[in-house]
Write a structure and sequence with these properties.
It is a single chain. By secondary structure, this protein is of the alpha/beta class. It has 3 helices and 8 strands; from the N terminus they run βββαββαβαββ. The strands form 2 sheets. Strands 1, 2, 3, 6, 7 and 8 form a 6-stranded mixed beta sheet that branches. Strand 1 and strand 2 form a beta hairpin.
Length: about 140
């Protein structure tokens, strides 16, 4: 699994020019499931994303997590994160999970987030979406689970 997580002061997803989801302060996470991923990766990602120090803590360093600041999470499926771009001028997506597997893992991620204490919103798997975000910092981290 590949993930790109941005600390945001706000983010929203629009589908067909209508707002589908929005969050205030929190994390916008783009996720991509890869061919070797199994369901265990979902729990690993959730633990990482809610406990990672994205935010300024009491000592004004990046020492506070999404959970600690009671922030919101937005999840967006983005298979292009698995692109191989080191050769030529056309990306290869052979590392991405096949669509049925990726969709299953994405739904598993959303289901497990529903069971957590984190407030979250999500995009629609496979949909064309316009993502609007205000990257706070800017702070962006790449994760390989």
């Amino acid at each position: 699994m590949q993930a790109l997580a941005q600390r945001v002061s706000s983010a929203k997803i629009c589908i067909n020019a209508k707002t589908h989801a929005s969050i205030k302060e929190g994390i916008l996470a783009y996720v991509c499931f890869e061919i070797d991923d199994e369901e265990e990766v979902v729990n690993k990602f959730i633990s990482k994303i809610i406990n990672f120090s994205f935010f300024k803590g009491d000592n004004h360093t990046m020492s506070a997590s999404l959970k600690e600041i009671d922030g919101e999470l937005m999840i967006v499926s983005q298979f292009t994160l698995s692109a191989v771009t080191d050769k030529g001028n056309k990306p290869s997506f052979h590392r991405a999970a096949e669509i049925d597997k990726a969709h299953f893992l994405y739904n598993s991620l959303l289901g497990r987030l529903n069971e957590s204490e984190i407030r979250f919103q999500s995009g629609v798997f496979g949909a064309d979406m316009d993502i609007h975000s205000v990257n706070a910092g800017p702070v962006t981290f790449s994760f390989k689970m």
